[in-house]
Amino acid sequence: MRRTSLLLASLLTMAPSALAGQGTPEAAAEAFGAAVIASDWPRAARFMHPEALRVLRGFLEPLVTSTEGAQLGTQLFGVKSAAELAATPDTVLFARFLANTMKEAAGAELLKADMTNLLTMIQARFKRSS
């Protein structure tokens, strides 16, 4: 769980992609945080920067595609083979990764609490600069 938490923290601190409709970094961060709090993992994954998603794949792909890692691929990403992993888009992998790692209640609540605190800080900073 500790490794998973560290990996999630690293990925989540990378800047979310500003999607159309999120004109400011603050709006994008708020929308990302709202997706996390709502456990809407596909929506949260779409906010991640493509490079951050590639980092996750690059970090975990060798583990998942090894003989010993087959079970890990199923547990983390819901894939049963290296071919299925390769064919799955990065955003889908990240959404599945979040969904599967957040099944542990403690992990989900910790992430949601951290995201709520982060959103509060972003809103306070935005209000000060306005």
Task: Note down, in words, how this protein is organized.
With 130 residues, the chain is mainly α. The chain has one domain (2-129). The protein contains eight helices and no strands. Helix 3 (41-47) packs across helix 7. The protein starts with a helix and ends with a helix.
What is the SS-derived class? mainly alpha
Tally of structural domains: 1
**What shape does the CA trace take?**
elongated
Instruction: Give the distance, in angstroms, between the N- and C-terminal Cα atoms.
Output: 40 Å
Low-confidence stretches: 13-20
Work out the helix count.
8
- Classify the beta-strand content into a percent band: under 5%
Number of strands: 0
Give a quick account of the main beta sheet: strands, pairing sense, barrel closure. Answer: none
The sequence of SSEs as H and E is HHHHHHHH
Helix content: over 70%
Mean pLDDT comes to: 75
Cα Rg: 15 Å
